[in-house]
Write a structure and sequence with these properties.
alpha/beta; TIM Barrel; Immunoglobulin-like; 3 domains; 8-stranded parallel β-barrel; 6-stranded antiparallel sheet; 11 helices; 35% strand; elongated; glycosidase; hydrolase activity, hydrolyzing O-glycosyl compounds; GH
Length: 592
């Protein structure tokens, strides 16, 4: 989310080349890389939802701004009181658009309270369970923690104590969420390379949580708050991204992009009114900076920036150093003083914001450092022209699409017999995917979850092979992991049919007055397997006896009243949910 904090400029190169790159038509280019995520505030659900659905091709997940943590066991739902559409319906709508839902939880506790919760093993464990349950029970794909109290409320003197507790908590929470198939995102202000002489908000310990978290969203905005200036200078943003990438896998990192601007009072002449011309309170404080006191400022969403400038006859100017737009205008306020005397003042105001060009400049850092993407505060507030520019750029860094096939050396095997799985993956131009670890998975068709059974690396032909021992009927697939260069891919599912193995000890001959008794074993060696003794009659198999296996898989099949002659029999293990029907090779018995 957003929070006001100051910083100084850091030197870095500005990525201007992207501004002149051509955008090819969608018909001859691949789908864009999904480089955008962002927050969807509970107070602007309609606008953010429309933006998400319209631009879902650029997003793999979004972060609804819906919850606040009040204690280790209490989560405040801020969405429901503000929206008539049920939360579950909204989640389903976002899922239907093809994006994952990873809601943000802010720290809604008082000063040092959250630090105290994390310091208490019992409360910390309770909070892990509370947050995990929230994700599971609401069908969220993960959660995002935006706990800014450590940085902006508790004071830096608390950080040496808070940091190790925070790191331990994040590791535990990530493990709990991952067990449920959920992700953990962390949103923080920037940390700085100690080599610069400043450390930033080091309490959040990027290095310590890097291997546990799935996303790091950096709030690279609110650089200028108390005095007029850029919202997030491009050099400062790049320095934060570059340092983060030295500590955290770059693909996990998302840099914050503001879809808002600020409008500061930088000078004032006259005496400003308290009441407007209608006699009502003016509703704003108009204060010029001076004597250590900041000037007043207002905020606006960037999709209103052009109309704001036009309404005052101002022309926005692009500042290449900061990668932002700015303009200055004057506004006169007329009304009365608190005593009723007529008065007016003229305020000189300076505006800064990031237009689509500024957003694109920051998005270019995604390609330069192979970051996960950008995170917009807040979706629905941006200039609509932003999306076409982002889409065009995202296509230039689109990952290769990958397709896979899977073949089995034998699709039907006996119990404990191996088959070889051969998975081949290629990119769109048919080039093989070489040197990639392919994950093989199985499912028994009952449990909806897929089980990992092993990995194998693709050869120069793009093929990876793995031997699988037949243990029961299984569905099999192969998965090629996603990388910066390639999209993830899953092969079509193949069916492996497995039959039980049966041994038998039939007699070679019996008298026709004696029962025919056939004994043997069935594997896997277990009780309760349905077995059938069949006799061939006129080219058809007729059931003549049934039984079930006992302990260790032993069975006995007995048939009475066999006619004299040379008769042909076989033993069959019936099909069930785990195995196909199995029939042994026919055998003959002389009936005397």
């Amino acid at each position: 989310m957003r929070r006001a904090y100051g910083a100084s400029l850091l030197a870095a190169s500005v990525l201007l080349a992207v501004l002149s790159s051509s955008v090819a038509s969608a018909s001859d280019t691949p789908p864009p890389r999904k480089i955008v995520t962002g927050w969807a505030p509970y107070w602007a659900t309609k606008a953010s939802s429309a933006t998400i659905v319209a631009n879902a091709d650029l997003m793999s997940e979004v972060t609804p701004f819906w919850f606040s943590v009040k204690s280790s066991s209490q989560i405040l739902d801020q969405y429901t009181p503000s929206n008539s559409i049920p939360m579950a319906t909204q989640v389903s709508t976002l899922h239907a658009a093809g994006v994952q839902v990873v809601p943000t939880l802010t720290d809604g506790t008082a000063k040092l309270v959250m630090a105290g919760i994390l310091a208490d093993p019992v409360q910390s464990t309770t909070l892990v369970a509370t947050l995990t349950a929230l994700a599971v029970q609401n069908n969220f794909d993960g959660i995002d923690l935006d706990w800014e109290g450590f940085a902006f409320v508790d004071g830096s003197s608390s950080w040496p104590t808070t940091q190790p507790n925070w790191t331990k908590f994040v590791v535990q929470l990530a493990a709990s969420l991952h067990l449920q198939g959920k992700t953990l995102s962390i949103t923080t202000p920037e940390l700085r390379d100690p080599a610069t002489g400043k450390r930033g908000y080091w309490v959040y310990d990027w290095a310590g949580i890097a291997n546990s978290i799935d996303r790091l969203r950096i709030m690279t905005y609110d650089y200028s708050v108390s005095t007029a200036g850029p919202i997030g200078p491009i050099t400062w943003v790049e320095a934060a991204a570059k340092y983060a990438a030295s500590l955290v896998p770059a693909s996990k990192i998302f840099i914050g992009v503001p879809a808002y601007g600020r409008d500061w009072v930088v000078g004032l002449s006259g005496v400003c009114p308290v009441l407007g011309t209608d006699g009502k309170p003016l509703g704003i404080v108009i204060r010029a900076p001076g004597n250590g006191v900041a000037g007043s400022y207002a905020e606006f969403v960037t999709n209103n920036a052009a109309s704001l400038a036009a309404s005052y006859g101002a022309t926005p100017t692009w500042n290449a150093t900061y990668g932002e737009n700015t303009f200055t205008y004057s506004k006169t306020y007329t009304g009365t003083t608190a005593t009723g005397a007529a008065t007016s003042c003229t305020a000189k105001r300076t505006v800064w914001y990031q237009d689509p060009r500024g957003v694109l400049l920051r998005a270019a850092l995604v390609g330069k450092y192979r970051l996960g993407g950008i995170a917009i505060w807040a979706l629905g507030s941006e200039d609509p022209a932003t999306w076409d520019q982002l889409r065009g750029y995202a296509r230039t860094i689109a990952p290769d699409q990958v397709s896979g096939t899977l073949a089995l050396s034998q699709n039907s095997v006996g119990y404990s017999t191996p088959t070889v799985l051969s998975a081949t993956f290629r990119i769109a131009d048919s080039s093989p995917v070489v040197g990639v670890p392919i994950l093989f998975q199985t499912s028994n068709g009952i449990d909806p979850n897929w089980r990992d059974i092993g990995t194998a690396t693709t050869s120069s032909s793009g093929t990876a092979q793995l031997a699988l021992i037949g243990s029961q009927n299984l569905q099999v697939r192969a998965v090629s992991p996603g990388t910066w260069e390639r999209l993830p891919a899953t092969s079509p599912t193949q069916q492996l049919k497995v039959s039980r193995v049966i041994s038998t000890q039939p007699p070679t001959s019996i008298r026709h007055t004696s029962p025919l008794s056939v004994t043997g074993l069935v594997w896997p060696a277990e009780a309760g397997v349905a077995l059938i003794l069949q006799m061939e009659m006129h080219g058809q198999w007729k059931n003549v006896a049934t039984s079930t296996s006992g302990t260790g898989g032993a069975y006995v099949l007995s048939a009475l009243g066999q006619s004299s002659g040379l008769l042909t029999y076989r033993v069959v293990a019936a099909a069930d949910a785990r195995f196909d029907q199995t029939a042994i090779a026919p055998f003959t018995v002389i009936i005397r």
